[in-house]
Amino acid sequence: MRLSLLSNKLRGEKRTWFGSLPGAPSVAGKESTAWAALLAVSALVLAISLAGLYFALKMPASLSATTTLVRYEHRGQFFYTVQLKPNSLFDDNELEPGGMYIARLIDTIRMSYTYSFDVDQPPKQADFVYQVSADYGFPGIWQKRLILVPPTKGDRETTLSFVVPVADLVEALNTFRRETGTNPGTPELDIVVRVDPIVETEPGLITEPFEHTFAFRFEGELVIPDGKLESRRENALTRKTTRRNDRRTVQLSLSLLGVLTSISALLATGWWYDQAQKNRPWVEQELERARKQAGNLLVRVVALPQLDRTVDVCAFEDLVLLAEETLHPILCVVEDDCVVYCVVSGLNPICYRFVRQNEEFA
């Protein structure tokens, strides 16, 4: 009865007794917490560094910037009057722009074109070539080009005058209808002015051509102006420069440093932990091994009960099986050169004992 009561008491207090007596601290305690914290911090730094490295590699290696060297502007404006054939319908044979005109009454269209070129830096040299043409016909079917002003050199401010022989063009369109026996749609007349500049400035050469088109549509017996009389276009000579993306370089360097540092910390922490495990007192290693096998059945005590009958078992595993079958705790006492484990069982109490010698962990 006394042994049974002692056994029940030991089982009831095993959680309090284990590790409560003086001895070497357990690795599962503060040291394990410190190792875990160090590993967690290193892993967090590694994750952040890898994320920074990923986003740094997604950044462009270089940045492009465009610098404006010189600005310039083309400006052009058409002006025209419609010259009529002799007729009894109009008092004046010259009509102003902006209306609709009867095609069979038109003789010519007198036009002028005023062009100017502005640049924000004084040019070293400036040459301009002007050309005016009239494109007429049925778009996509039959078209012809009439040169009104052949390529002509001029200044940066020039006025061109020319005449569009509308009566001759209408006759050409009618000839096409008669010879083909078709009326393919609405003919068009496009007046195209082209300017080719060669302007030398300090930053570079300006050679961008400028074109301005003004159209007349033939709808039935009417000629209808269709287009803008005035046109302007601004542009600039630019220079594109490329420079290294310093932000990418800094982020890449810091991320690589973080990756290398965190990996080194993880490796060092693992090595130090392994060394700490190897250098722990053999008693601590033995008690930790026993606790992993026996779990809550293991109870550390100051001294084992003094019994008349003692049986030594061959392996600690046999003691664990006996404790599980009998529901008795495994008593554990640390001596100078060994650790003694004992299970007290039976109506006539017997101490089943296993001794772990220090030499096994030396």
Summarize the structure.
Helix content is 33%, strand content 41%.
Defining traits:
single chain, 362 residues, alpha+beta, 3 domains, seven-stranded antiparallel β-sheet, five-stranded antiparallel β-sheet, 17 strands, rod-shaped, disordered N terminus
Total strand count, please? 17
Q: Count every helix, treating DSSP H or I runs of 4 or more residues as helices.
A: 7
Q: Provide the gyration radius in Å.
A: 52 Å
Largest sheet: 7 strands, antiparallel
Q: How confident overall, as mean pLDDT?
A: 86
Q: Please give the share of residues in helix.
A: 25-40%
Beta-strand content estimate: 35-45%
What spatial form do the alpha-carbon principal axes imply?
rod-shaped
Number of domains: 3
Strand/helix succession? HHHEEEEEEEHEEEEEHHEEHEEE
